[in-house]
Specification:
Aminopeptidase; alpha+beta; 7-stranded mixed sheet
Length: 146
């Protein structure tokens, strides 16, 4: 899988396509919860993973909050590519980028409860009480850079 940072409208559209297939159709999340307000979308750094050059397979993004906290969001892999390590690869790609950014001191994400083990293996630890997002149980998780 070739992972790239999104820099054009086509790749961004492919991220939205993946999020639609994975979250809206696949998990029955409301459209209004998936495509956030314009400011959140504009401030996100999106990534997409392509198979064989042009087949979209995985997506994720991050946003910088409060100047020094990065939040990884919208990590998803199409069903047909599940179990091949693509989710791990795209999260590790983002972590490498963020760990090399001296302005970032914390990395967080909101994980669906069924994915807590996946993120634990990547070095994230859950904290706080669980919460519901789009009708799905979640927990906040954190990865400390240092």
């Amino acid at each position: 899988m070739n992972i790239i940072e999104v820099s054009n409208k086509y790749d961004y559209a492919m991220c939205i396509y993946l999020r639609t297939m994975i979250f809206i159709i696949g998990q029955n999340c409301p459209l209004v919860d998936e495509i956030e307000n314009e400011e959140d979308e504009e401030n996100a750094v999106n990534f997409i993973g392509y198979m064989m050059g042009d087949i979209p397979a995985a997506t994720a993004r991050y946003r910088v909050l409060k100047g020094n906290i990065a939040k990884i969001e919208r990590v998803g892999v199409l069903d047909e590519f599940q179990g091949k390590g693509f989710g791990r690869d795209i999260v590790l790609h983002i972590l490498d980028k963020l760990k090399n950014d001296n302005s970032i001191t914390e990395i967080k994400l909101g994980a669906q409860d069924h994915a807590l083990g996946f993120y634990n293996k990547l070095g994230f630890k859950e904290y706080g009480d669980g919460y519901m997002d789009a009708g799905i149980p979640h927990h906040m998780m954190e990865f400390k850079k240092f």
